[in-house]
Amino acid sequence: MAAVTGAPDLAAGGSRWARFSRSEAVVGLALISPTFLYALLLLLAPVLAIVAFSFWTQDYLTIDRTFTLANYREAWSDPLYRVLMFRSLAVSGLVTLITVLLAYPMAYYLSFYGGERKALWLFLITIPFWTSYLLRVFAWKIILGYNGVVNASLMEVGIIAQPLEFLLYNVNSVVITLAHAWAPFAILPIFVSLEKIDRSLLEAATDLGDGPILRFLRVTLPLSLPGVIAAALIVFIPTVGDYVTPRLVGGNNGLMIANMIQVQFGKANDWPLGAALAVSTMVIVTAASLLFVAATRYMSSRFR
Amino acid sequence: MKLRPLGVYAFVYLAFLYVPVLFLPIFSFNDSAIVAFPLKGITTEWYAELWHNDTMHGALWNSLKVGIASSVIATILGICGARALTRYHFPGRAGMAALIMLPLVLPEIIIAISLLVVLLQLGFSLSLVSVTLGHILMAVPFSIAVLTSSFEGFDRSLEEASLDLGEGPAATFFRVTLPIVAPGILSSLLITFTISLDEFIVAFFLSGTEPTLPIYIWSQLRFPAKLPHILALGSVLLVASFLLLSAAELFRRRAARRAGIAASGGFL
After folding, report:
1. What would the pLDDT profile of A240-269 be if each residue is shown by its tens digit?
2. Domain assignment present for B59
3. Which chain A residues have a beta carbon less than 8 Å from that of B117?
4. A216: burial class by Cβ within 10 Å (0-12, 13-18, 19+)?
5. A72-303 is classed in which CATH architecture?
6. Is the ipTM here above 0.90?
């Protein structure tokens, strides 16, 4: 019915059609405006405020609003902040590499052999990442601790006589914990991109004489690359700014940049410096992400 | 199902996802204040302690208030967003969607400190309201993601039929659209509630003097003697999250099925 009544409308001339399309846009804009305004007022405006703060200075409780680059000079030259920043990037980079490499075969299995249980598998994979992040991180403290699960079982078996102390409170434990906590995030984007691959392309590759390995490298992997890139970014960007994991399992040598940002907004009470550290982190993370995407695209175009 | 190497890998991977968390309930029943192997015996002492802990009850009540408020508001905003993005084309659509979905990838600490700065500068004091504002921001993208699937499978000819039969746009929305996407909405409510219930960072920065449950847990982690008690609380929280999410998944599937049936019905 709709199609029949719609046709004369179209034929009736440009003005009615224009009015119709305009009203469609107006309705759409009106509908999205509460959600958009909320994000504008409580996300974009506050983030811009942080950027503004990073150019100001603080004298105990009063904020001096004269423009200065002093906070950035301090954030980029102080060795302590540099160490924390490099460590955050290195830890996140490593975590991203590990999670994506581990997630790919899992996503591949789900997409190609998941069969009727696909939905159940996906559900089981997604459940852990909805549950408390704090508790998942805390679980690793119990596992890796001095009297923890790993030490107790190794001693029980007789492999070690004394508990291993290098398990907890260092960069390794941060990497392990983050790789576990973010594992589900990497699987989903890769799975989605694998699902989109037209299976007849794989048959064509086989028909044209490619073996399973060559077929994977020349068809499956390049076509799933968008999912791999998405997975890498979804893990990399938030983990650079992670606070809980380094604080709970990192010890003094495993702390990351977010812990320092928190100190500036808390105990140190130097908001502008904290803001400069936060903005620097966002800029570096964005630059690193763009570089990564460009490099991956370039590599894949070279090898195809 | 044939046993492939890849299949074995998948099971090991799934075990890797779950096993660390399972140690929380295991130790929560351990009859010893020291959290270490070997296990001493089974006790429900730690759970009984939870029952009588007034500070924890206060935190639980705070979490419930924040969770209910933020899930309801986030889902309403999610309905507007998902409906606009799946049904209408308008200028600036992609940019608006990007900003709304941004909290999915933004480090949580950025959201937390930027809200902290703005709220304090505007003269608001930190309270459960500020936590709720932050949780809504973080939950909306998830609400939209859940609702988009139920709005997308939706057969538009049903709405057109309703309009043709003389109902107005508002009546059509409430009498046709809403009942069909209702399971999706329920799913969104449950998921956003769970997100709020488990969220730590934003609450850590914005809660002021009223702790939510994760803040209470964080404050107790410093005291080794309180550990078994926290493990019991954590286990309860894990089970609650699991149940809420399972219910959300059931509703989400029903939503998908309903949209599918509606579509085939429209086809006939």
Report:
1. 999 999 999 998 889 999 999 999 998 888
2. yes
3. 46, 49-50, 53, 271, 275
4. middle
5. Orthogonal Bundle (1.10)
6. no
